[in-house]
Amino acid sequence: MDQTDGIPETHTAQMGSQQVTLPVIPVSDDLSIALMMVIDHPVSVMETAGRELAAHFVDASPEIVVAPATLGIPVAIEVTRALGLDDYVILQKTRKVHLGDALEAPVHAITSTAGAALLLDRARLGDIRGRRVLFVDDVISTGSSSGAALALLEQAGAQIVGVGALLAEGDGWPDTLAGYADRVFALGRIPLFPR
How far is CA 194 from CA 113, 135, 138, 140, in A? Predict the structure, then answer.
């Protein structure tokens, strides 16, 4: 493993029954992260991860899976499929024409360069309100994106029965998601790399 300034170029993480090798990239002058891009991994890896994540939450009896765009979409598809469900909801990050009156929650992610928002299409409110919702994502890092999503879902009347991720990064997220501590599960952990 090559290193630059004491920071490795890659990090191999255990993700459930699988190992994934992730590039380590700088996100600021004093921090690098192991970058999980689900779209850079084989479909079979995501299928296995989705099945293993779904298995953890099956006893919570979710009725629908919700994830943020864009990297949460493959996770939502595979978890939905593994749970035997046939529908999922995606929280958008880009205001498209049909989202003019969407429910909205501001969010800041460690991998984003500017503040953003999560948007819930009002046309999907009936699929969320009063239902048992499993929220999934690729990585939980600071917890701010997940926290914003969960607040948005609760505003829409969802009953959050689980918060799942392929990987949990660093140690900042447990405080942010403390209200959901008994419902959070990740298939693996990855460290932060201070410079």
Answer: 18, 29, 22, 18
